[in-house]
């Protein structure tokens, strides 16, 4: 929430508006007085890394009454406030909408009571509202992610990872209760992210007789050699008859039926606290700026809207449509129409549920289709967190589809050396939370070894390839595509999943591993900034990885509150450096104590990190001193973030379903033969959807010398960072969200096309 508050204040001041804080939510609006204060630029500095909200929040009974809203209207009119930006859940937003509808009536009453005059009624005739959804449950329809959800998932996953190590040692079963009274999002996604054995959520109560099924599943997992079981329960979990299923009930059940040593952990309010994740800071900053733009464009006739994210695209949706749909979910659950409830929750929720079911529950051998196809999975390039989650997902979905799955160690180098072995369902248990690449990965390209690779493909009769990696993976697929002319072995379906911390692969907005790297950068920047608290004014120059791609520096800069980020894609010269130093000097003289400057490792061969450090030290002498840090390989390591685990899991499942479809389409006269462009694809996320794109078509979109796409969406976020750092810059509104409507019943998608 603080990142959103900061963005609204600074964007508001940037567009020339007067911005006010209303402390303690609606209570502060009703009470007035010192609760409503004008906000300055400096008021919101160094609060990005603070959890909760610095302006306070409170449940307010008085605002629910007409008298309360009358007082609130009076307090706003006194200060000439007619634009409200509300950050909260559906209750707060519904209240805001009611307030807006009553506004003119309230003003009339205030005139009758002699509290305001007719001029004020004319001048402040309309109240404009825009909402941002802040809720850890992600229970608001129409938006893919609400502010706070990702951070709550971070807390849950940190706890689950820690619990898994103790459960492993003691051979225990753990029942974890997570928040979500009416919405199972946190439970579902954390179950997906840690590979839990069983999950219980309010939207999809288990079938009658679930107790027995669950115990069978737990004991089957143990008999396959696993030493632990994890069961995740949403606090609002119920059975088909609406009876609560508590963590205690689940524990007693396991102890009674199986005699396993079982413990319960209730996470409680831990999930609401802590430092916001990188994703939440960027989401909130983007939404805050979008909210101010939406307020500037509203007229008396436009409906109140919420700004939100759909895929990677900012959208505006009518507030009441979203609220009504959110209420419909509850109604569907009350009427025991559970399938409807899941569908109304939206694409992302529905797809999470499908993917979870696909990966957690192994069908007995007798029920599996037998395809006789062999599919190989390998990692290429540098390691990225989330690769293992993708491999696990591919292996399990492949086995469910009836294929034989083969794992190749050490990329194409291992391929031509014959390091290929069959990989089974249980071999990938517990892989989701592991960082790096468990299969091993190398940068070797196949072109020089096509003979030997083709020989291995014949030997193992490989019918399809799934390559998970970064820019090299794209080059590999292009080389294999070229080699089809000479080797029939490569005339098979091939799919690539982008996995690299640099996020420099064409054809996709996001890559597996980039979110984990951003979190590492942001966490370190927070610590580095904190190291200067209490000392005199200080500027830090921090070098990030990314090759020639400025994604980590730019987006990391936005999330950490940097003053500048130097990147290769946006050329800069000595005049820009000078302007930045002067800008910082100016800010330091007034009130800001710490500055942060990020530099991408390859942004300029002459303006090195040392050069920039020395320049800033010299020019800032007497005003601030300088320190420099090269973050290095810590950006590549670490346990994958919840986002990367799920992104990897979902796109990998989707890729395997595509491979199955292609195998069936291209199987002729007893063999697979695929040589069309669309049989060698990259699966990427573009704006709102996951799309398979032929790698040949991506060639023109790529700068191969600098290993980056020619066009990159995140460059549009750079002006945002500059505005939030007090630069006078122009902001391109062409990409801002347009008002849309909430989509209700979508045509039934086949499982294979469910979007992320």
Description of the structure:
With 756 residues, the protein is an alpha/beta fold. It folds into four domains: 201 residues, Rossmann fold, CATH 3.40.50; 120 residues, Phosphofructokinase domain (Rossmann fold, 3-Layer(aba) Sandwich), CATH 3.40.50; 198 residues, Rossmann fold, CATH 3.40.50.450; 123 residues, Rossmann fold (3-Layer(aba) Sandwich), CATH 3.40.50.460. The strands form seven sheets. Strands 11, 12, 13, 14, 15, 16, 23 and 24 form an eight-stranded mixed β-sheet that branches. The radius of gyration is 27 Å and the shape is globular.
Mean pLDDT: 91
Give the percentage of residues in beta strands: 15-25%
- Domain module count: 4
Query: Largest sheet, if any?
Result: 8 strands, mixed
CATH topology of the largest domain: Rossmann fold
CATH uppermost class of the largest domain: Alpha Beta
Helix content: 40-55%
Q: Please name the CATH architecture of the largest domain.
A: 3-Layer(aba) Sandwich
* Number of distinct helices: 24
User: Can you tell me the overall shape?
Assistant: globular
Which blocks of ≥5 consecutive residues have pLDDT under 50?
745-756
- Gyration radius, to the nearest Å? 27 Å
Broad structural category: alpha/beta
How many strands?
A: 26
Q: Report how far the terminal alpha carbons are from each other.
A: 25 Å
């Amino acid at each position: 929430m603080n990142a959103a508050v900061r963005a609204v204040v600074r964007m508001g001041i940037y567009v020339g508006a007067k911005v006010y804080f209303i402390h303690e939510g609606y209570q502060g609006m009703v009470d007035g007085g010192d609760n409503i204060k004008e906000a300055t630029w400096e008021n919101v500095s160094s609060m990005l890394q603070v959890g909760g909200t610095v302006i306070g929040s409170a449940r307010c009974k008085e605002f629910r009454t007409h008298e309360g809203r009358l007082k609130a209207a009076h307090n706003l009119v006194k200060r000439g406030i007619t634009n409200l930006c509300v950050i909260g859940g559906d209750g707060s937003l519904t209240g805001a909408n009611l307030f807006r509808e009553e506004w003119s009536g309230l003003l009339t009453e205030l005139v009758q009571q002699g509290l305001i005059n007719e001029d004020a009624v004319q001048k402040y005739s309309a109240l404009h509202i825009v909402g941002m959804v802040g809720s850890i449950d992600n229970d608001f329809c129409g938006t893919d992610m609400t502010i706070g959800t990702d951070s709550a998932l971070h807390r849950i996953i940190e706890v689950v990872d820690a619990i898994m190590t103790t459960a492993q040692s003691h051979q225990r079963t753990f029942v974890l209760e997570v928040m979500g009274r009416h919405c199972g999002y946190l439970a579902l996604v954390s179950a997906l992210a840690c590979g839990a054995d069983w999950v219980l959520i309010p939207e999809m109560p288990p079938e009658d007789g679930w107790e027995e099924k669950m115990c069978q599943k737990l004991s089957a997992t143990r008999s396959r050699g696993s030493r632990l079981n994890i069961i995740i329960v949403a606090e609002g979990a119920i059975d088909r008859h609406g009876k609560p299923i508590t963590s205690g009930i689940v524990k007693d059940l396991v102890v009674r039926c199986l005699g396993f040593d079982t413990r319960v952990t209730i996470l409680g309010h831990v999930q609401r606290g802590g430092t916001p994740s990188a994703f939440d800071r960027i989401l909130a900053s983007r939404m805050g700026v979008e909210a101010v733009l939406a307020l500037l464009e509203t007229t008396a006739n436009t409906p109140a809207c919420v700004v939100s994210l759909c895929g990677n695209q900012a959208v505006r949706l009518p507030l009441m449509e979203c609220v009504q749909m959110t209420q419909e979910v509850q109604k569907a659950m009350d009427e025991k129409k559970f399938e409807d409830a899941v569908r109304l929750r939206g694409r992302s929720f529905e797809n999470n549920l499908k993917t979870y079911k696909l990966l957690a529950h192994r069908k007995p051998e007798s029920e599996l289709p037998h395809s006789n196809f062999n599919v190989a999975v390998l990692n290429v390039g540098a390691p990225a967190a989330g690769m293992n989650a993708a491999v696990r997902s591919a292996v399990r979905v492949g086995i469910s589809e009836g294929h034989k799955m083969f794992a190749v160690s050490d990329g194409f180098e291992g391929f031509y050396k014959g390091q290929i072995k069959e990989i089974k369902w249980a071999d990938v248990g517990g892989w989701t939370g592991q960082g790096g690449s468990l299969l091993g990965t190398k940068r070797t390209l196949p072109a020089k070894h096509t003979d030997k690779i083709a020989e291995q493909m014949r030997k193992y009769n490989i019918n399809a390839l799934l390559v998970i990696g970064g820019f090299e993976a794209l080059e590999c697929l292009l080389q294999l595509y070229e080699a089809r002319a000479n080797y029939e072995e490569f005339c098979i379906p091939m799919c690539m999943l982008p996995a690299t911390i640099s996020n420099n692969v064409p054809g996709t907005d996001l890559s597996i591993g980039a979110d984990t790297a951003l979190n590492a950068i942001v966490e370190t920047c927070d610590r580095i900034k904190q190291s200067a608290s209490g000392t005199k004014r200080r500027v830090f120059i921090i070098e990030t990885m990314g090759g020639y791609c400025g994604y980590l520096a730019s987006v990391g800069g936005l999330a950490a509150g940097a003053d500048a980020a130097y990147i290769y894609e946006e050329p800069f010269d000595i005049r820009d450096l000078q302007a930045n130093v002067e800008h910082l000097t100016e800010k330091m003289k007034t009130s800001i104590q710490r500055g942060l400057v990020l530099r991408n490792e390859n942004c300029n061969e002459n303006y090195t990190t040392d050069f920039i450090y020395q320049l800033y030290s010299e020019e800032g002498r007497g005003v601030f001193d300088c320190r420099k840090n090269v973050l290095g390989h810590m950006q590549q390591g670490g346990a994958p973030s919840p986002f990367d685990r799920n992104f990897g899991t979902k796109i990998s499942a989707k890729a395997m379903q595509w491979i199955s479809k292609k195998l069936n389409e291209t199987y002729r006269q007893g063999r697979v033969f695929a040589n069309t462009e669309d049989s060698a694809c990259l699966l990427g996320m573009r704006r709102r959807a996951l799309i398979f794109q032929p790698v040949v078509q991506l060639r023109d979109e790529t700068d191969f010398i600098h290993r980056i796409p020619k066009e990159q969406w995140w460059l549009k976020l750079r002006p945002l960072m500059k505005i939030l750092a007090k630069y006078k810059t122009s902001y391109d509104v062409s990409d801002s969200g347009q008002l849309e409507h909430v989509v209700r019943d979508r045509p039934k998608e086949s499982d294979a096309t469910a979007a992320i």
